[in-house]
Amino acid sequence: MLISKNSSIEQQVAKLTSDLMHKYYCENDIQFVIEQMDNDIMWLGAGEYEYLTGFKDVSNIFRKFAGQVPKCNISDEEYNVIQMSPKSYLCTGRMWIATDESTQISLRVHQRITTAFRQYDEYIKCCHIHISNPYVELAEDDIGFPNKMAKQSYDYLQEQIERQKKKILEQTLVLEKMSYQDTLTGLYNRNKFNQILDVEQSASHIGVACFDLNGLKEINDRFGHSAGDEIICNTAKHINKFFYGKGYRTGGDEFVVIDSEMNEAQFYNTVNLAKKAMEQAGISCSIGACWRIDNCNVKQQLDQADKLMYKEKREYYKRQNNIRHFREYK
């Protein structure tokens, strides 16, 4: 590495030692590591038989590591450097190294490293690397077994499990939302509506309203389905505005509202407000509504609201002098 004038040699040695660790464990950039080696480098690895000297042998063994080291993350780094002679420096460091969750393996260890560097006129080179991992060494308070390290590995595994649980839960919630949400309007879809119908309601009062767009087919035929989709989305926005979280798109141009919070006056008043808002926005919609305080039954109330909606739709097409549609809804 070229010597920089912006920081001390000691600082550059500490940074280069950190770079060696990150390039090896996080990026598996073996070429970078080899380029920092001096000609008479000595290497002592964490494995029992990992010991070599000389640039040729050390660089050759490191080339074999290319593509073999799983991606890791490094944290809590600590380095200390002392100058051994006018142009030689010794660095010791320690850090936590943990496998990245993308590797599908779980290991976290407290790693230690010692490096030695020679200073030349314009650059510094690494002449010694010693990696040590306390895999089998006992902590001071361990008796007969490395309990502390075993506990650390267990805790890390639990962290990975909890992280995966959280990710699975988030994905499950997304899938559940997708299974119950109408992709065009954002309202609940037919699947969610059917689920509501299958559940016996225990509310003391329920209001059910059916909304059905008028003339959607003519809009699609005349202006295209994108124009029809825009009308559908605007209708859904009005329904969600007045009945937030209580609207369902049950068909192409059909919507249902189920409310168990409003009293009778509030419910019918809100239905009328939604209808007026739609009319002001140029949306023609036939609506039927049913509210009960006794004998609440969503299916029965849906049938009643549906009949009232079709009655209004017949009147609409009758006013429009549309004979074909009038016969269809007669």
From the helix content, strand content and strand pairing, which structural class follows?
A: alpha+beta
- Give the strand tally: 10
Based on the coordinates given, report the CATH architecture of the largest domain: 2-Layer Sandwich
Report helical residue fraction.
40-55%
Tell me the span between the first and last alpha carbons. 88 Å
Protein model, in words:
The structure is a single chain. This protein is an alpha+beta fold. The chain has two domains: 9-135, Nuclear Transport Factor 2, Chain: A (Roll), CATH 3.10.450.50; 190-324, Reverse transcriptase/Diguanylate cyclase domain (Alpha-Beta Plaits, 2-Layer Sandwich). It has helices spanning 9-26, 30-35, 55-64, 147-180, 190-198, 216-223, 225-242, 264-280, 298-319, 323-328; strands spanning 37-44, 51-53, 72-85, 88-99, 108-119, 124-132, 206-213, 247-249, 254-259, 285-292. It has a six-stranded mixed sheet. A hairpin with a 4-residue loop joins strand 5 (108-119) and strand 6. Helix 6 (216-223) runs antiparallel to helix 7 and helix 7 packs antiparallel against helix 8. The protein is elongated, with a radius of gyration of 36 Å. It starts with 8 loop residues before the first helix and ends with a helix. 25% of the residues are buried.
